[in-house]
Amino acid sequence: MEKILTVNKLTKKFGYLTAVKDLSFSIEKGNVYGILGPNGSGKSTTLGIVLNVVNRTSGDFSWFDGNTSTHEALKKVGAIIERPNFYPYMTAVQNLKLVCKIKEVSEDKIEEKLELVGLLDRKNSKFRTYSLGMKQRLAIASALLNDPEILILDEPTNGLDPQGIHQIREIIKKIASEGTTILLASHLLDEVEKVCSHVVILRKGEKLYSGRVDGMLASYGFFELKFNDMDKLKSILEDNSSFGEIKIDNGLLTAFLKEEMNAEVLNRFLFEKGIVLSHLVKRKESLEEQFLTLTKSQTN
Ligand code: ADP
Ligand code: MG
């Protein structure tokens, strides 16, 4: 796979506060990456560092093949890390023409990009008449004018109404389907699940998980069981390699699966061991619960 960005043991300290700690991950061409974490977990700082607007404390990062200077590389990056800011009394087209002049790219793509973000019919409206969602979409069009290799977005749907959120997500998916790599920061699990193929989960600047989104979601669920001799039940389950963590709480045993198993199979297995359960329920953790488990389970 072709590498777009490699981040290696990146650390950023603001005085005593470590905003990003020893963070490593890499971004490969054609995927949609989410940096997911609660507010203050270091998402914007990480994006700021790789975009050269925040100085790193230690560690490093490299763009593309590793031989491209950051200055050169950033010409092939489209990024929106702040609230969209254009000239209020100029139209969308006038604003984008100005962006083309500043970026030294041709004006040929203006209509195509406005079409992509659904603003072609409003191209001659003044920026100040745009809704927040339209402003955000204009910013995306602007960031795409030079056909970047990668589009970077920081909390692209913050502050938008449900319809605006939906439009932005659909546009991101469309841009990705045309082959542009995407990196977006979000504190919304649901957003990452809907839009991204890969995720880096941060908590207090530290990486908790990185990999495919469906890998994060892969959980085989757990059983809740009751039997009159809980310790015996527990020790039998502990000898079964299908189970990971097993705990007993308030007279209820919870056994987490490491692989697929249905209730019938477990029931028969235990019955053959002389265990007749008084309670058997199979549950699957919701995504939300898994994310909360991931972000809570590290204490410092
Ligand atoms: P996120 O984008 O995930 O919400 P940030 O990267 O903005 O998180 O912030 C990470 C941590 O670094 C937070 O505790 C934040 O208060 C702190 N921080 C960010 N920027 C600065 C700064 N310029 N000066 C001091 N602290 C900062
Ligand atoms: Mg942020």
TrEMBL record:
<dbReference type="GO" id="GO:0005524">
    <property type="term" value="F:ATP binding"/>
</dbReference>
<dbReference type="GO" id="GO:0016887">
    <property type="term" value="F:ATP hydrolysis activity"/>
</dbReference>
<keyword id="KW-0067">ATP-binding</keyword>
<dbReference type="InterPro" id="IPR027417">
    <property type="entry name" value="P-loop_NTPase"/>
</dbReference>
<dbReference type="InterPro" id="IPR017871">
    <property type="entry name" value="ABC_transporter-like_CS"/>
</dbReference>
<keyword id="KW-0813">Transport</keyword>
<dbReference type="InterPro" id="IPR003593">
    <property type="entry name" value="AAA+_ATPase"/>
</dbReference>
<dbReference type="Pfam" id="PF00005">
    <property type="entry name" value="ABC_tran"/>
</dbReference>
<protein>
    <submittedName>
        <fullName>ABC transporter ATP-binding protein</fullName>
    </submittedName>
</protein>
<keyword id="KW-0547">Nucleotide-binding</keyword>
<feature type="domain" description="ABC transporter">
    <location>
        <begin position="5"/>
        <end position="229"/>
    </location>
</feature>
<dbReference type="InterPro" id="IPR003439">
    <property type="entry name" value="ABC_transporter-like_ATP-bd"/>
</dbReference>
<comment type="similarity">
    <text>Belongs to the ABC transporter superfamily.</text>
</comment>
